[in-house]
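Anyone? Bumping this.
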Amino acid sequence: MGTELLDAVALSRLADLKLRARTVVEGALAGLHRSPHHGASVEFAEHKEYSPGDEVRRIDWKAYGKFDKYYIKRYEEETELRGYLVIDCSASMGYAGKGVSKLAYATYLAAALAYLMLRQQDQAGLVAFAETLRAYLPPRSRSGHLGDLLDALGALEAKGKTDLPRAMAYVSDVARRRSLIVLFSDLLETGYEAVHLLRGLKARRHDVVLFHVLDSDELTLPFEGPTEFEGMEDDERLVADPEVVRAQYLAEITRFTEGCKRGCAEGDVEYHLCDTARPPSAVLLDFLRARGRGRR
Amino acid sequence: MGYLAPGFALLTALAIVPVLLHLFGKPRAERRRFAALAFLRRSDRKTASQRRLRQIILLVVRAAAIGAVPLILAKPYLEADDTSQAAIGIGSGRAESAVIVLDDSRSMGYRRSGGTLFDAARAQAEKLCDGLGSNSEVAIVLVSGGGPPSLGELTPDRARLRRALREARPTRRPGDVTAALKRAAAILAVAPQAERRVYLLSDLAAHGFSPETGWSGAGPTLVPIDVAEGEALDNRAVVELRVEGAPSLGPRGVRVEAVIASFGALPVKELAVTLRVDGKAVAKGLIDLPARGRTSKRFFHVFEEAAPSPGAAAGEETSAAAPHDVVVELAPDPLGDDDRRFARVQVRRQLRALLVDGDPRTIRRDDEVFYLETALRPGDRDDSRIEVTIVTMEDLGRRPLDDIDVIFLANAKAPDPPRAEALRAFVEKGGGLFLAVGDNVEPEAWNAALGDLLPQPLATARTVGATLKSRDDGEARIGGAGDHIARFDRRHPLLGPFAEGSHGSAEALRSATVGRYLLLKPTPREREGERQVLLRLESGAPLLVEGRHGKGRVLLLATTLDRDWSDLAIQPAYLPLMQQAARHLARTSLAEPDAPSLVGQPREIPLADGDRRVEVSGPGGAMRSFEADRVAGRKSLSFVDTDEPGLYRVSAGGAGAGKPRGQASFAVNVDPPESDLARIEPARLATLMKAREGGTGKTPRRRVELWHALGAALLGLLLVEGVLALRRV
């Protein structure tokens, strides 16, 4: 497979989601030019009293000499980051143009992030929603949790309408501690309201990231000839000539994405526009770079 | 419109195809599920109106383009009257006999950017002459008949023809096209060539054609040529001017009424109208004229008193009339001759009153009319502007009353039938009669003689106080303290000076004491409306009553004009009352207006016995002199050179230089119908032509092919369609 960035279609050909997640992560980390196993940013953070089950090799013997007690050294990456991967599973996320659906794309990204987080001993959880809560896995860092997460992600289906306020309320409820909240959604039904909700989470000291997943068709309207468009979350129809309305549509969708981006920036919410034609690794790489910049 | 290949024209119906395709042939839309439908709908809504407009334009363009193709193949054309020389056979070199009927009537003076219509007609006539075959013979007939002699016989001499055309001038006379065409037909009746034509060069104004057609059977071909080339010729004119007396403005006040007509298709707003008197603008106004309608404009003017003309004949213009020039003019338009209308007004210099003394005395102050004469001519001064003549009733029958404005009958016996008839005729013609009673007035005799003239029949006298005679005879005790004026009509012009606050007051009237007065019988019911009581005594008896008869007025004073029955004559109110009565009763201050003179009509100039030479100067300054052989011993002179509208001055006298004679001067106006430049209806012209052509009745027609223009239009449509379609892509 190498380290080249595979696009979503190529990833979809891989056998299971775990492999896809690892591929995405490795592609992204290769882009960072860092060790995939021990980040250069591993820094001493605090001492923790030894308890059974801790690795004996991590005991700080110097501290034992001073205090006559066993202490374990804890490093930065070892702090228990809680991450909530929040995925919009509404019907609109099921739109697939020439490649994978937006939901599939979102699961790739979410799986990769979960893989990355768990590998760093962080806790990763999952909230999948549409009108109702579809799946919830609380954040865990144990080794078997990744399998649970990937299974849950793989079982997601795009259907129903979006109720983002409800989902955000749920996340806000379960994420009592300061957490990383990552939302994967197309925001088509909620619009700017989603941005306001995310800004509300940010105001509660959560670290909030938005992956705005849109299909390439939605960003370019490449169709030709008179077309009868059907809504994905309702029964509405519209007969239009894409060639005639394209310019106006592109102006509208650009205004929308720019508005979301500006709204997120104003609320210190990290925003990533994800065109499904783009390799997920590239998106993850952008994310990691942005995180790296933020940490420095 | 016609078609060379009419079958193709039927295929124009194919233009419906794009419409049908648009309605029923919409392409099947591909179905597609799409998540961002809300954005798409918003975009579609914003572009919908623009898209619909473009679709409609595209539809129309496509339908027109498809319809144009069979239309072009059908080769459509239009037919129009062709007045070009080639079309009417000029320049073909064929020999023909032709008469050029050149319209030189006033309407041809209409000015356009390139000159007058007459200039255009003459230029076209010259072209016609040049284009005729060398063996052609041509005559020229002028429409008005008032210009220089036209070339009335056929001639092949081109130089002579050109000279005749050069000499032709537009006139201010009306034109009679029908008569000119008849003359042309008569000339061609003996023409040598078989090809005979009458070329009518005219504005084709309808007023020039009379209803008759004449000239039936085979005749020459009539070729009418509209020198105005169909252009709408708007015009405004003063078509009528009336000057009448305005008594409310005094003896020299006049009302000038002008009727202004618009002969254009559009209404005219705020058209300036000016009144000029003796060359000076004295009033201006603005009027709105409806399209092809008329409006009257009234001016009021008071003529100033002028010194008599030094050259006036004895008696003339001193008491009779002082003539004035009155002109009403409009803002200039392309046809200028009818923008002004002229009138001569003769205003009487003085009011002439005839006092019939019913009780003349050798002692002047005892005379019946002593106080009246003094009141009408105070201090014998001439500035009262009333010329007073005193006569007895016997003299009344011996003198004419035509130059008298008002007659005062003071305590006169009832006139005999001839005098009564003269007085009746005088009042009927507009004269004023003032009847004051007295001891000589026998009511029944007066009722019998002039009962129809009197406002109310006379009854018996009633004594209510002291009279002069009774005082002299020591009978002052009879009748008590006398009666006074109680009521008077303040709105009546005669009593205006006695209204409160004005000069003289009601007290001046009420201070008079009437000792004796004549009672009046009730007015007959049928004459009730003609009577008006102006002064009424405290007893309720009328003292001054006004009546009407014919054009004149009659005032009846139920007491004496001297001091016999009342002391009114020595009251301050007496003088203004008598002056006002004289002015109120006087007939119009204007002399009878002259009969209107029109351009081209002869004018009779009255001559005096000693006249040996008469000079008439026209509006342009040109002078015509008439010597003794035309003047001496004649009553009048017929002046025919009235070709210019305006004011003509007449001087007359002995063999030397003549003296201005204002009363003989006169105004000449243009004929109003010539101002209407509306063209003859095509159907009527066709009828005339038919009659003159022996039934063919067709003017040369010119075919205007339309398919080239349609082809160009099709290319344009395709271009537009391409641009619209490209924009869509």
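Late reply, but here is one note on the structure posted above: Chain A has ten helices and ten strands.
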